[in-house]
Amino acid sequence: MVIVVAGGEPPVATALAGLPPGAFVVAADSGVDGAHGIGLRVDLAVGDFDSASAGAAGRVVDAGGRVEQYPTAKNATDLEIALDAALDRSPERIVVLGGAGGRFDHWLAVAFLLASPLYASVDLQARWAEATVTVVRRSAELTGQPGDVVTLLPVHGTAGGIRTEGLEYPLRDEDLPPGTTRGVSNVLLGTGATVSVRSGVLLAVQPVSPRTL
Questions:
Q1: Is 195 helix (H, G, I), strand (E, B) or coil?
Q2: Which helix (DSSP H) or strand (DSSP E) does residue 104 occupy?
Q3: 9 and 112 in one domain?
């Protein structure tokens, strides 16, 4: 698997729970600082580095990692470049840490980026301070605590043949069209749930409960 550390809001150490310690790490711009802040060694740093701390790229090189610098004026965000670099390693799974804080348009852009067909070959999840977002293209396992909220949002069209196990309000071979609120505010019955789709893409959003902050 590959861990991608986004710029912007730094990740918290608890986001590393369950992730293998030897995973390849790609950092986007100031994600270098976020990665170092939770003890991760950066194998590859990408971006224009306009928001990283002074010397961030140098620290990556000093530790044996690589740096790929891009111009500030470009047609993709640093996170998209980092995701593409992660995909080049043909992982089964990519987990994105940090980077969702701040502007609402950035939050939406990242959410839609995660669901892009470009990443259909890989299991993809983002762990932010505000929420964990899991992309469901076939089937996904969700974890949490009993009573945690789970919202299922279809993107890029209707998500068809949805089945859930472990949620209070089950879906049994049902469709969710784009724009529906039917999937909002479901609830974990235990510590895990399974969500699967026959067609389409879902974002399974698990907002962070105040008790876990």
A1: strand
A2: helix 104-114
A3: yes
What are the tens digits of pLDDT across the range 142-169? 999 999 999 999 999 999 999 999 999 9
Q: How many domains does the chain have?
A: 2
Mean predicted confidence (pLDDT) in 128-135: 91
Buried b (16+ CB within 10 A) or exposed e, 104-116: eebbeebbebbbe
With respect to residue 75, please indicate whether it lies within any of the assigned structural domains. yes
Same domain, 147 and 197: yes
pTM: 0.92
Domain containing residue 151: CATH number: 2.60.120.320
| pLDDT tens figures, 49-101 | 888 999 999 999 999 999 999 988 888 889 999 999 999 999 999 999 987 66
CB 88 within 8 A of CB 105: no
